[in-house]
Amino acid sequence: MRKETIAAIATGLTDSGIGIIRISGEQAVEVGNRMFVSPSGKRILKRAESHKLYYGFIINKADSENEEKVPDFNEFVLDEVMAVVMKAPKSFTGEDTVEIQCHGGILVMQKILELSLKCGARMAEPGEFSKRAFLNGRMDLAKAEAVMDVIHSQNEYALTASVNQLRGRLSEAVRGMREKLIYEIAFIESALDDPEHISLEDYPERLSSILKEIMQEVRRLLATAENGRWLKEGIRTVIIGKPNAGKSSLLNLLLGEERAIVTDVEGTTRDIIQETVTLDGIQLQVTDTAGIRQTEDTVEKIGVNRSRKYASDADLILYMVDSSVPLDDNDREIISMIQNKNVIVLLNKSDLTTVITENQIEEFLPDSPVIRVSALQGSGIELFEKTVKDMFFQGELKSNRETVLINMRHKEALQEALDSLLLVEQSLADNMPEDFLSIDLMRAYTSLGRIIGEEVDDDLVEEIFRKFCMGK
Predict the structure, then answer these.
(1) Smaller CB count within 10 Å for the chain: N or C?
(2) Is the dihedral of CA 227, 233, 234, 240 positive or negative?
(3) What mean pLDDT value characterizes the chain?
C-alpha cells in the first residue's frame, strides 16, 4: 500500500454550515501543523493531544514551516476553524489523521484542500480513506461496503439494515460459520495425517449435524436477500391498465404533485414515466405505462408494447381498473398477462357509480388483493400502503437486530458457500473419502471469506472502493 499522506473534502461539495477536510497518513500531523495556528499564532498541532478539538486559523503561509510562532499571521488567514488530531491507530483509517472543520463554503473548502496539497499531501482517490481502513484492519470488507450503503440509504429501513452491517452483524455471522468450518477442516487433515491417534469413527454423523447448523444459517441469510434488494433499491412497481383507468392520476397522488399529464382523452400517456415513491418508509420505483388496448396508432402501439415489457420484469404490478365501466377484452388480455405475478388490483373511481365488484376480479385473480380507491379523492391509499407491506414484508419489516443482505456480492458468495456445503452433504451420503469432504469444506470457507475480505484479490478490492465517493 502506498504510504503517501492523502487529503480530500469529506463533506458534500455544496454550501453548508460546516465543511471538513480530512488528511491521513504518516505526515498528516506535519501537513496540518504547517496550515493551522492557534489564536496566538503558534503552530501547535505537533504537540496536540489526540482526539481533542483546537480552535484557531488556517493560514496561507506554509513556507514558514519551521516557524513555531507566526507573527502578523492575520493577513494570511484563510478561515477560522476547529482542528482535531487523531493519532494512529485510533482513527478511521488506522493512520495519523487530521480533520479541519471549517466554514462550509465551496470556495473556502477548496482553498484549504489546495493548501494541504501544497503542504505535502496528495489528493485522495475515491474511497481511499475507507480502503486504508480496510487494509489497516480497522474494518472488514463487509463493514466498508456498509459505509456507502449508509450514505446512499433512501429510507429508514434501508438505513437500519446498512447500520447493522456497519456494526458487524453480518461479519459476526460469517466469522462464526468460518470458525466452525476451519475447525472441521483441521480435524480432518489431522486425522488423515495421524490416523493412529485421531479417529474418524462416527465422524460423518458429527459433521452432518454441524453442516445442517451452518446451512440453516446460510439459508436464513439468503432468504433476506430479496428483502434487502427491495429495501436498498426499492420495489420495482409498474402501473398498468386500460387507457383512462386512472394510472397517471394514481402516480400523481402517490407523488403528491402533478407529474403525469391527466386528461379525459384515452391514450394520453404514450411514453414511460418513472418516479421514486416512499410509502410508510417503503420505497417504490414506480413506472407509469401507456394504457393497454388494441390500437392501430403506431406511436401508441410502441407504448403498449413497452408496458408489457415493464410488467414482465416488475416486482409488483398495480392493475388499475375503471370500476365505473364493465370489464372488456382489453381487461381480459391484461389479466392473462399478469397471472402468477405479485398484483394489487385497484378498483379506481370508487367515487362514481361502480359496476365492477371485488368478486368479479377475484374470479380471475384469486390470489391478488383488491382495493377500492379513488385516485381523484385519495381514498383507499392507506389500505394500499398496508397491503404493500403485507405482501412484501409479511406485515412488518425486519427488526433492528435482524441481519438483512443488501449487497449482491454477499448473496453470490453465500450461495457459492451453500453449493459447496451441499456437495459435502452429498459426499457424506455417498460415503466418500474424507479428503473429498475437506476440499468442499475449504471451498465454502473461502466463499464466506470473500464477504469480509479475507479471501479477495487486489483487483476486487480496487473495484469495490473505486465506487466510493470522494472523501470517503
Answers:
(1) N
(2) negative
(3) 85
- Round to whole Å and give the CA distance between 62 and 45: 14
Which amino acid, 218?
Answer: V
Per-residue pLDDT at 315 exceeds 50: yes
459 vs 184, higher pLDDT: 184
Q: Using the 8-state DSSP alphabet, how is residue 16 labeled?
A: E
Q: What is the pLDDT of residue 264?
A: 45
H helices of 243-368, where? Answer: 247-255, 298-313, 329-337, 358-364
Q: How far is CA 30 from CA 157, 164, 174, 175, in A?
A: 42, 36, 40, 39
pTM of the complete model: 0.73
Cell 506535519 -> residue: 30
Least-confidence region, from 226-240, 278-292, 369-383, 431-445? 278-292
Fill in the amino acid letter for 163: V
Residue 344: strand pairing partners? 318
C-alpha Rg value of the chain to the nearest Å: 30
Give the span between the Cα atoms of 390 and 388, in whole angstroms. 5
Do residues 39 and 29 make contact, with C-beta atoms less than 8 angstroms apart?
no
Count other Cβ atoms within 10 Å, centred on residue 104. 18
The string of pLDDT tens digits covering residues 82-122 is 999 999 999 999 999 999 999 999 999 999 999 999 999 99
Contacting residues for 435 by C-beta, under 8 A, at least 6 apart: 188, 192
Buried b / exposed e across 8-26, counting CB within 10 Å, b at 16+? bbbbeeeeeeebbbbbbbe
Helices 458-466, 128-135: crossing angle, 10 deg rounding: 140
Average pLDDT of 231-240?
A: 85
Distance from C-alpha of 7 to C-alpha of 22, rounded to nearest angstrom: 6
Host H or E run for residue 198? none
* CB atoms inside a 10 Å sphere around CB 248: 24
Closest CA to 392 of 401, 404, 409: 404
Identify which has the larger pLDDT, 299 or 347: 347
CB of 438 closer than 8 Å to CB of 427: no
Answer whether 225's CB lies under 8 Å from 402's CB. no
If residue 133 lies in a helix (H) or strand (E), which one and from where to where? helix 128-135
Please report, to the nearest 10 degrees, the dihedral formed by the alpha carbons of residues 388, 393, 397, 403 taken in order. Answer: -150
Express as a percent the part of the chain with pLDDT over 70. Answer: 90
Q: Is 246 helix (H, G, I), strand (E, B) or coil?
A: coil
Own/partner pairs for 80-84, CB < 8 Å, 24+ apart? 80/56, 81/36, 81/55, 81/56, 81/57, 81/112, 82/53, 82/54, 82/55, 82/56, 83/32, 83/36, 83/45, 83/48, 83/53, 83/54, 83/56, 84/51, 84/52, 84/53, 84/54
